[in-house]
Amino acid sequence: MSEMREKIATVDDRRKLADAVRGAQIAAADRGDVVVDMKEADLARIEILAHDLKPVFDDVPVDDLQWDFAISKGQQPRLWIDPTSHVMMGRDRRTYRFVRDTRLGRIVVAESPEVQPISDAVTNYIAERIVERQRLMEGERISLRPAVIYQEDKNSGPTEHASVRPPAVSSTTTRRSRSVVSELITVLTWFVIGGLAGAGALLAFFWDRLSPYF
């Protein structure tokens, strides 16, 4: 009789555990559905902003490769402007946040629940970056490659003849040449002084013998 009761109790415990596991699975599925719904809602809002900015993206020069203009559909959807800036949704899932990563950390460029203010902020940011790039391109450019002279070949056309590199004048060589000249001048000066001093000494030593001739 006692064995029968223990078996019934064990079966009841297993049923309770199975019911608990089934309940946990249902709750996890419900939470997953909520997360999926939130992600889809964030993605929909990001796509609305991207659609509003599409004319701006189309006006950017094709040869300007500093921009991304892409949507990442990860756990938190983002609209990437360039490798350091993007737009994402805030914690309330309704506020757009235009952020930028800098050396000092992440800064919020603009934040608003409306699309238009964020669209204007992104447009101004793109315009500023384009102007900065134009200023850099208009500055003086110094080529880091050696100049190449092409010799005209009557049969096969222009062919590469030789590479011309500007002569590099070493400051060390210049200092050495100046030092050699200075030392040479110093030696000649002391040589002349020594010669004059020797001549004076000889004249004083033989003065008694030479005085009759003066």
From TrEMBL:
Transmembrane parts of this sequence: 184-207
Keywords: Membrane, Transmembrane, Transmembrane helix
Protein name: Uncharacterized protein
